[in-house]
Amino acid sequence: MLLAHTVRRPTTLAETSIGLAWHVRRTSDGEIVWHNGGTGGYHSFIGLDKKAKTAVVMLHNSVNAHDDLAFHLLDPRFPLAPAPAPPKTRKTVNVPTPILDAYVGEYELAPTFSIVVTREGNGLVIQATGQSKFPVLAESETEFFLTAVDAQITFVRDASGKVTGLVLHQNGRDTPGRRK
Fold first, then answer.
1. CB 167 within 8 A of CB 160
2. Among candidates 149, 145, 110, which has minimal Cα distance to 132?
3. 37 found inside a domain
4. Is residue 116 part of a domain?
5. Which of 15, 57, 65, 155 could form a disulfide with 26 if both were Cys (CB 3.0 to 4.6 A apart)?
6. Cα 177 from Cα 169, distance rounded (Å)
7. Which domain holds residue 149?
8. Contacts of 72 (CB under 8 A, 6+ apart)
C-alpha cells in the first residue's frame, strides 16, 4: 500500500497529487490519502490521515458525492459544503385525459435503464428499471414531479406535436430519454 500512496503525478485539484489510484491531498501539517467512487445511485469514500492515525470510510445511497463531510471528519479545518436548498414547493394542475394518454409508453435513458409511464386512475405513474412504481403529479401540461423523491419529468414533443421523449431532472442532472 505504501507504493500505491506514493505521489506519482500532480492533478488539477488544489493541493492534490495522485499515486497508484490513490489521491494524496496535502494539508498544513501532513497529508490525507484518499479514494472515492460512485455507481448506480451509490457513492463511497475512504480517507487516511496517517500522521493523526485516523481514517474515514463513508458509504451512502446517493449519486451526489459528500466528500466534504469525509474530509471534515478527518480534519475539521476542511469546510463543509453549504446545505442544498430545500425542494421547491410545487402546485398541481389538472391535465386533460388525451394529453396524459399521449405520454404513456417506455422511454430509454440508457441501454439498460428505462422509465415506463402508465395511466392509473386520473393520473400518470412511472416505473424506472428495477424500481417501484411512483405517481407523478402535473404542474403544467408537460412538467410533472414526484413526491417520493425530489425529481421532475418534462415530456418532449417534436414540431408536429408527437411525444418523442422525456427529460428526468434529478440530483442536478437532466437526463433525456427517447420514446421507444
1. no
2. 149
3. yes
4. yes
5. 15
6. 11
7. 97-179
8. 78, 79, 80
Domain count for the chain: 2
The CA-atom distances, in angstroms, between 37 and each of 43, 130, 132 are 6, 22, 26
Residues 102 and 55 grouped into a single domain: no
Residue 86 lies in a domain: no
Grid cell locating 76: 475539521
Q: From 41, 74, 107, give the residue that closes a domain.
A: 74
- Domain shared by 70 and 103, yes or no: no
Query: Do residues 45 and 116 share a domain?
Result: no
Alpha carbons 107 and 164: distance in angstroms, whole number: 9
Determine the Cα–Cα distance for residues 1 and 48; give it in Å rounded to an integer.
Answer: 12
**Which cell numbers hold the place of 172?**
442536478
pTM of the entire predicted model: 0.62
